[in-house]
Amino acid sequence: MSATLHRIDAGRPPSLDPMMALVAPDMNAVNAVILDRMQSDVPLIPELAGHLIAGGGKRMRPMLTLACARLLDYPGTRHHRLAAAVEFIHTATLLHDDVVDGSDLRRGKRTANIIWGNPASVLVGDFLFSRSFELMVEDGSLKVLRILSNASAVIAEGEVNQLTAQRQVETSEERYLDIIGAKTAALFAAACRIAAVVAERSEAEELALDAYGRNLGIAFQLVDDAIDFVSDAETMGKGVGDDFRDGKVTLPVILAHARGSAEDKAFWRDAMMGFRASDADLAHAQTLLRATGAIDDTLAAARRYGQRAVDALGGFAQGAAKAALTEAVAFAVARAY
Asked: What is the per-residue pLDDT across 194-252, written as a single tens digit (0 to 9) for each?
């Protein structure tokens, strides 16, 4: 029987600490690769890249590559460079996202685009994408290259899909899930799957790790979209209600709009078009979200996807790695509480 999200360890809140401890020696090697490969003779590149890479992120995606390799008892070191490639892909997308969104906070710090400007952020993001592909090619596996390059393309598609859905309050739940499946979950899935490739495991195990990462990624993003309305800037590392003010139509908004009165629907249309973006409007949005159960149902959906992630690990042997990967799911879902 698979573990459940609700019975990880009743004695303490779920944490990433077990996974961080599990992969600590490997993570030191990954960090050395990251530090080496973000260097350039152009001083602005390591300065700007270092601002974000050293910005306090948990490095969850490369940790997943390392933890999945541990799950499979992989004895080699190929996953170190590939985990660094995963982090470079993620960092590049963050640099580009902050430009697109006009964000001014990331992990509680000023964003690179605010400090150095949009052109520098975009170009350094391009540099990090290029570095990630160098690392993939050096690994020498066409299968790894195919998985990670496909993920990069899918992420870009998801970002464009989100951009075209922005301010469209009639966006369907199905399209929303397509967007987050691409822009967030694709890299989680690829980060996990490549561990099975370097460990030379079966296609079935590859697909199981892909499913684990994909469902974890969707759960992670659903929680992010919920806490945009219910958390605070210190916890989130960005401004409260940023998605609301940017006109991002996320699942809480989709549900509240669908369940609201004609007056409520008019409010959501105006808000997503940018006409209702004051603190009072945000407070009204939060009231509507509570009244319609939109936040609760978004978090319930996150728990369902989280359970699918845990279930995907069912065929793997019990041990520290499986326990850490299971608790990582519980941590991702529990961030909203």
From this structure: 999 999 999 999 999 999 999 999 999 999 999 989 866 545 455 678 889 888 899 99
Tokens of 192: 């996990």
φ/ψ of 109, rounded to 5, equals: -115, 160
User: Is residue 23 a contact partner of residue 70, using CB atoms and an 8 Å limit?
Assistant: yes
Low-confidence ranges of the chain (pLDDT < 70): 1-11, 55-56, 107, 231-239, 336-337
Encoding tokens for residue 111? 């964003």
Token pair 């602005």 is found at: 44
Report in angstroms the alpha-carbon separations of 234 from 19, 244, 278, 327: 24, 18, 20, 24
* The one-letter amino acid at 154: V
Q: Write the pLDDT tens digit of every residue in 111-120.
A: 888 888 889 9
Tokens coding 261 = 């009165």
Sign of CA dihedral 181, 187, 192, 196: positive
**Beta-carbon contacts of residue 53 (< 8 Å; ≥ 6 apart):** 34, 38, 87, 91
Q: Which spans in the chain are helix H?
A: 17-37, 44-53, 60-71, 78-101, 112-116, 118-139, 142-165, 173-180, 186-198, 203-230, 233-236, 242-245, 251-259, 262-272, 279-292, 294-312, 320-334
| Dist CA 102 CA 35 (whole Å) | 27
Rounded CA Rg of the chain: 20
- In the prediction, which pLDDT does 235 show? 52
DSSP bridge pairs for 109:
106
Q: How far apart are CA 261 and CA 259, in angstroms?
A: 7
Name, in order, each residue with C-beta under 8 angstroms of 48's C-beta and a sequence gap of 6 or more. 112, 115, 116, 120, 121, 124
Tokens, residue 257: 């709009």
